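Entry 14. Structure prediction run on the chain below.
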Amino acid sequence: MPHLELSAFDTPKIAELAPVVDGKPDLSKISEIDLEDLGRRFRLQKIIFETSLELYDLMRTTWKGNRETLFSQLIPLVEKFIISNKLTISPPLFGLDEIRKRILITLNMSKVVQHSWEQIRFENTESIQPVFDTEKPIRSTGDMQAWYTARPCERTKRSHINFCVYDSTWEDTESFELDRNPNVDAWVKNDHLGFEIIYIFKGVVKKYRPDFIVKLKSGEHLILETKGQPSEKDKAKRGFLDEWVRAVNQHGGFGKWRAERSENPDDLVEILTAT
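Output returned:
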């Protein structure tokens, strides 16, 4: 299990929380709850149980075994993680107060659930196989139809799409480098292509569209995302993108793929040079 840090600076002192009714939040009864009272009511065992229950809800639909067995296995796993040094509190002095620590875990329970579920899912996967669209399993930039936009765009040289639409000046800078870098054979902005990665965040199925797809002179395909400081949602996206890359590479019929995140315009050259 990788490390997870919960920061007290990111958690409000007074929160709008939904009281738990029969294990589910009743959104019609949201009220302002004093956090000290919350800490007294949410004992460690209750936190472990509620976290395990949320994990169970995420996993039960795809679990092929006995569901009671699943829940009984999740409780000790969650307990072991919460009391271990893999879950840390920032600042450290905040974590020394048991009530404040429980409060922080309670208010960040969704982070603990997402973190635990991703590791259980990815670490226990025995094999990965791509699932193809039954109507159109193979797509190409040549299939794109003309479309119109009021957003800024520039004509391209190495892209199969003759214009690139920019969502930011950062993307403008990166596309300029893609058009002139000697390691790039072809590239395309992932806009109206239908290339999406399905991922799950906080129990909700979502679609993630990476920014660029690049074919390097080496023959390798690169999925490039331009992103600064990653959020919890970005980390979830990356986990599912990495799984997609592994599935395609294991299939072997579409060449070699890798995924990278550009954290600033200056690191793109190094990314395109790496093998």
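The mean pLDDT is 83.
Filed with the rest of this week's runs.
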